[in-house]
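2.7 Reproducibility. Because tokenized structures are sensitive to small changes in the input, we list the exact sequence used for DNA-binding LytR/AlgR family response regulator, including any N-terminal residues retained from the expression construct. No trimming or masking was applied before prediction.
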Amino acid sequence: MKINTLIIDDNPNWRLTLSKFVEMNPVLKLVAVCESAFEAYAKLTENEVDLLICDIEMPDISGIGLAKSLPNGPLIIFVTSHQEYALDCYEVSPVDFLLKPLNFERFLQSIEKVRKRLLSQPEDISLSPYFFVKDGHNYEQVLYHNVLYMKAQEHFLHIVTPNHTYTPMLSISKMEEQLKGDVFLRVHRSYLVHRLAIATITKDDVILTNGEKIPIGDQYRAKISRQHIGGNLISRNG
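Resulting structure tokens (single pass, no recycling of outputs):
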């Protein structure tokens, strides 16, 4: 499995160093190199990213600020010249924290932590962090955390990720049976939505972080209110 990696650092020399480190590691695939959090945010919405290697102190938004803004974010390795950021960064649960100047051997240790984290059994997906979809003669691996939503259409299921849609011959009910955790929410008889991909819930729709609207079925309204909003509501307006 290749780990799709995005680098963010406002220093061109460190961007070059980190790019070389990534390219020297066969388990990593470099998706993009960015100099700001704003640029990175755009790339994150366009690409499937498994790992974010991110500087902390940047001129527009800090690396910690960016991590907090990502509802369905990738794993993170923070890199910085400032030891004092170590405690602050752990509120967003990074995989590791690297001090500059960077050492390749130490970098490899961090990547091994990432690899083990991706392959470990998560709490919410009971069987595996990934599944396979048959595509012609090939089997494509899809990470659960990259899925935005799933849509049933006749005998097929459209599994939608940021940059690809897989369409296996599978019923949505059968897929829901395999999802024994609570990561995905049934919002309509034809739709399953990844909870962390939800940005807004209106009377009639679920609006995702990429702007897509998913209709809410009448029979699912109470369940959405109870299971997804429920105890997570911290304020009421009006």
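The chain has a mean pLDDT of 84.
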